[in-house]
Design brief:
By secondary structure, the protein is an alpha+beta fold. The chain is built from eight helices and 13 strands. It binds ligand DP6. The site of ligand DP6 has 16 residues, from helix 4.
Length: about 350
Amino acid sequence: MNQPIKTKGRVAWRCPSNIALIKYWGKQREQLPNNPSLSITLQNAFTETVVSYTYDKFQNDISTSFLFGQKRNKPFENRINEFLLKIQLQLPFLKHLKLRIESKNNFPHSAGIASSASAFGSLALCVCSIEQELFGQLSDHPELEGKASYLARIGSGSACRSMYKGYVVWGKHPSVEFSSQLYAVPINHSIHPIFQKMQDSILIVSSEKKKVSSSDGHALMERNPYSLIRYQNANLKLTKLMVALKNGDMQQFIEITESEALELHSLIALSVGNHILLRPNSLYIIEKVRKFRIETSLPVCFTLDAGPNVHLLYPESVKKDVQNFIREELLIYCEHSQWIHDHIGQGPVQLPNQSL
Ligand code: DP6
């Protein structure tokens, strides 16, 4: 291996979370997805990670210390250590490093926003920047985002989609050029202008810890009797959604997005445990949104993560009307009237390398 051109430094990245329209639910081994997924990268919900590193060629075991929001967080620390251990196969220089990792989210933990996506996304970007600083270039990859997407996937599947702005696909699919099981690709060149400024208002029905973690949920698909049909269906829906996104077909977009959210929750309900993750207030919101859409003909629809909180998606052109509707009719169903406003985002940003 090349000798490093420097032996210590500090790197920092901000990485946003993302919300899937076609869901990743079911995987094999190190996050190889059982179906392709398609997401929108967010702008305001992000993690910032700063990594200080020291290189010592006589050290043969990576050494890490970790602070999350200025505190220690044992479960997350274990997950990060496992991740760093796994990616050492691709990045043998890691074993010579002493790392001090500091991370913080700018959104509440249980808001129904995937914090593992932004957390592993920002850490993978930091690891790639360290490689560049140490050796002047990345090994085996032409560009930083591509390599970071590959690495982030090993930490958390959905994290690989957060490396790019706008619309992103992860998982092999015939209608997406260069798509791969191993990393995500941006598809912004084939998005109609009406979808380019999508808004995402997240209505917090409950901030309780998730009843089914993503890892457990993916595992439940292994014994789900509908899993094969599900994977075929996800492929089909992705084909149709790609066409709708290209042609500006809002009607199709709404139909596919809502059916996909309900399919995710149906799969969860039909898996071992028969979990119902939606709360009565989630259903009231869904009913109200559909009624509002019929009465006003405004293009607003919902999607869901594996929890009770509801994401409302709509173009910027109707922001004022939809937000008035949220304030007047939906906040009564939210815990302490909480909601978070976000929108389609610009992707990760490298930060000046100061501490958080
Ligand atoms: C419902 O990416 O959190 O949000 O790969 O086990 O870390 P791991 O799972 P994760 O799963 C996300 C599931 C989902 C749908 C999606 O984001 O596509």
